[in-house]
Amino acid sequence: MPLSQTPVGGAFAGRDIVELDAVSLSQAIATRALSCVELLQAFLAQIERLNPQVNAIVAPLPTEGLLAQARALDAELARGRWRGPLHGFVQAPKDIMPAAGMVTTRGSPIFAGQVSASDAVVFERMRAGGAVFIGRSNSPEFGLGGHTYNPVYGTTRNAFEPTRTAGGSSGGAAVAVALRMLPVADGSDMMGSLRTPAAFNNVYGFRTSFGLVPHGPAEEVFAQQFSVAGPMARNIPDLALLLGVQAGFDARLPLTRRSEAPGRFALPPPRDWRGVRIGWLGDLNGQLPMEAGLLQTCSGALAHFEAMGCQVQAVTPAFDLERLWRAWIDLRSFSVSGANAALAADAATRALLKPEALWEIERGLKLTGPQLYEAMKVRSAWYQCLRELFERVDFLVLPATQVFPFDAGLDWPRAIDGREMDSYHRWMQAVVPATMAGLPALAAPAGFGPQGLPAGIQIIGPVQADAAVLQIGHAYDQASGHSRVRSPLLTPSTPPFA
Fold this sequence. Notes:
The protein is of the alpha+beta class. It contains 16 helices and 16 strands. It is 36% helix and 12% strand.
């Protein structure tokens, strides 16, 4: 019979299972109140029901093999072996990094059908922790751009309004979490790839400090410090649950932190927030163009910090944001071209690259050593600027995006509030400050704009203050309630998107 009609026994009904938060699901599995088979069946049924409307999960694996894994995990529990908080969890690793035995296309026809022989470190840890990989979450080509579409699997659509973009590059992950097709999800973030889709789909996405979570293996393990792996979830305890599995030192990646032992990350206990200083960056004194209504929606979230007892003040770093942007695109193009230059050099693969990828590669190849050193100096000066700012405030807050979710048929916004965007990623400039400073940044739901579309804020902490950012993020979530607003697609009577 179809998965949606498969009986799910035990103490929970199928729809009830997918509505549980990840912490509760993990406890139910650990105490054997819920079986791994029941969990798998419930989430596969949810995927069958909703994924055709949004295309978040791609490259699904055969059901029989998944059921065999779930039965084996149940047998381990019966013998008294519990692998940890992800035991029996359905997961769909992002289609950017390798996952053993699964197709890894990176959203490119160049790699369509390519099966990976090994796992990325985070996938290795998730799998060892008992996760069942049921397919991949969709991503744009090479993860480039904040809109999840590619010629291999097509477009992923927004969880709240399927005519709009899901964001990217972890767009499939965000939609799957928002629509209860996954309890939590992995993602990665170089230029907002966790933060943009989290904001667009009313969930939480956490750009971790570099070195907290191993991101690789990679060909180059010393200079690359922009792209990080991290978790996505519907609330902060769930986010911390996945991060606890992902985080920790790995000798294959020498810049990971020895102070972080695998499996040891935990959400700090509640605290008194009275007197904590919040610096509101807003649109950085007009340097970031914003779609009408977005800045007002995001600034409305400040009231929740004030209700917690925080002191909110407007701040503006004494720094030329355009100078920071130029340094950023130089360092980004250097990184992208280094990893993909061979694809542009070969005529056969070059013809399959999307224009934005080719632009990045060619731009990176033209950069000189002195240009790169100057960009690194600018990045260092920006870090020092924010370090000094954190002597006056405890956390910084600004919008996670500069637009609401846009039409899914577009490639990228060409203008914001009358200001032309001069590149395919200029519309995402708001995420650059945290990336360039190497600071932890949590994308948190900020409510809904005039057209009912989701918006998000970034909560940014001082260097390596990941736990503190999640701690205040949890208090904000409890105060605001924004993340508990459900997608209309979750209503059983909602007709399929046509």
